[in-house]
Write a structure and sequence with these properties.
The protein is elongated. Helix 1 packs across helix 8, helix 3 packs across helix 4 and helix 6 runs antiparallel to helix 7. The strands form three sheets. Strands 2-1-3-6-5 form a five-stranded mixed β-sheet. It has a five-stranded mixed β-sheet with strand order 8-7-9-11-10. A two-stranded antiparallel ribbon has the order 4-12. The protein is α/β, with parallel strands linked by helices. It has eight helices and twelve strands. The chain has two domains: about 130 residues, Rossmann fold; about 140 residues, Rossmann fold, CATH 3.40.50.1400. Strand 10 and strand 11 form a beta hairpin.
Length: about 300
C-alpha cells in the first residue's frame, strides 16, 4: 500500500463500546492511534454504539472527500448489517438491502467489511495460542500437537453469523494439522465453553476468546465457565491481576487462557486491508439481509 492511496481520505473505526466496562474502547483507540501514526489518511476517527463520539455523529465530524468506515467487530450480523449502517444513514429499519458506497454532500463513503471475517484472523488466533504457551510454559511447554485449541465465541440464537465465523476459524485451524484438535465453543450456544474438558482428547487446552475487547465476558464469565470460582475472580479483579492463572489444572487438564483477539497488533493491518478492498469497489456492491440480520446469498 503506497502512502498516496488515501491522501484524500478519512478512516473511521467503529466499535461497540460499553458504559459498564471502561476497557471496551481500548482496542479501537489502540488501532486508530497505530494507523494515525502511519500518516496514510488525512484523518482517522473513532466512534461507538454505546459511547461518545457516537456512530450517528461521526458523519458531521469528517470532512475528507472519501470516507472509509470499518466496523471493528467479529462477525457479520445484527450490528454490522443493521445497527451501524442505519446509524450512518446507509439504510433504514425497513430496508432489506443497502449499497456499500454512498455519496453525501460531495463525500464518497465506503462501508467496509468487519475485521473479524478477514482471512488473516486464522493466523492471529493461532498467534494468540502460541504467545500464551511461550509466556507460561510451566512446568514445560507442550508441543503444538499435544494441545487442543478452543476458539470461544459469544453465540446467539438471533443471528447465525455470530456462530458461523467461529466455526469457520476452528475448521481452518483444524485443517492445518498443527494442533491435536481445534473446536469452536460458545457462551450461549452448544457446545458450551465448559464442555471443553470433555471434548479435549489431549491433556493440554488453550482457550482463545474471539472477542474484540477484554471485558465482562473475557475477564469474568469465561474464567468462571472454565471452573474458577466467582469469589476468586472478584478478588483478582479488585487486585488488578489476571482472573485466570496460566496454566491452571482443571479436571485432569492443563488450561491456558489468552487475552481477546482484538488487542492483537495484526488488527491494525486488517483495518487497512478492509479499506484497501473497499477502495477498489465499483459502487454497486450491496448487502442484503433478512429480518434476523442474516446475510442473504
Amino acid at each position: 500500500m503506497s502512502e498516496t492511496d488515501f491522501e484524500d481520505a478519512a478512516l473511521v473505526l467503529v466499535g461497540h463500546g460499553s458504559t459498564l466496562n471502561g476497557d471496551s474502547s481500548d482496542p479501537i483507540y489502540l488501532h486508530a492511534d497505530a494507523i494515525r501514526r502511519k500518516g496514510l489518511f488525512t484523518e482517522v476517527r473513532e466512534c461507538f454504539w454505546k459511547l461518545e463520539p457516537s456512530i450517528s455523529s461521526v458523519r458531521d465530524q469528517v470532512f475528507a472527500s472519501r470516507v472509509f468506515i470499518v466496523p471493528v467487530f467479529i462477525s457479520e450480523g445484527y450490528f454490522t448489517q443493521q445497527v451501524i449502517p442505519r446509524e450512518l444513514g446507509f439504510c433504514s429499519n425497513s430496508d432489506e438491502s443497502f449499497l456499500r458506497v454512498r455519496e453525501w454532500n460531495g463525500q464518497r463513503c465506503f462501508y467496509c467489511d468487519p475485521v473479524g471475517t478477514h482471512p488473516s484472523m486464522t493466523e492471529a488466533l493461532s498467534h494468540r495460542a502460541q504467545e500464551v504457551l511461550e509466556m507460561y510454559p510451566f512446568p514445560s511447554r507442550p508441543r503444538d500437537e499435544q494441545v487442543t485449541l478452543f476458539i470461544a465465541g459469544h453465540g446467539t440464537g438471533n443471528n447465525q453469523n455470530s456462530r458461523r465465523i467461529i466455526e469457520q476459524q476452528a475448521a481452518q485451524l483444524r485443517a492445518t494439522g498443527r494442533y491435536a484438535d481445534v473446536h469452536a465453543v460458545f457462551m450461549e450456544e452448544e457446545p458450551r465453553i465448559e464442555a471443553c474438558y470433555e471434548m479435549a482428547q489431549s491433556r493440554n487446552i488453550v482457550m482463545v476468546p474471539f472477542f474484540i475487547s477484554d471485558g465482562l465476558h473475557s475477564f469474568e464469565d469465561i474464567p468462571m465457565m472454565l471452573g474458577e470460582s466467582a469469589t476468586v475472580v472478584e478478588k483478582r479483579l479488585k487486585e488488578g491481576v489476571p482472573t485466570w492463572r496460566n496454566p491452571t489444572e482443571r479436571q485432569g487438564k492443563r488450561v491456558w487462557y489468552t487475552r481477546s483477539i482484538g488487542l492483537d497488533a495484526a488488527i491494525s493491518d486488517v483495518v487497512l486491508e478492509r479499506a484497501q478492498e473497499a477502495a477498489a469497489w465499483s459502487g454497486e456492491e450491496r448487502v442484503s439481509i433478512d429480518s434476523r440480520g442474516r446475510k442473504r446469498a
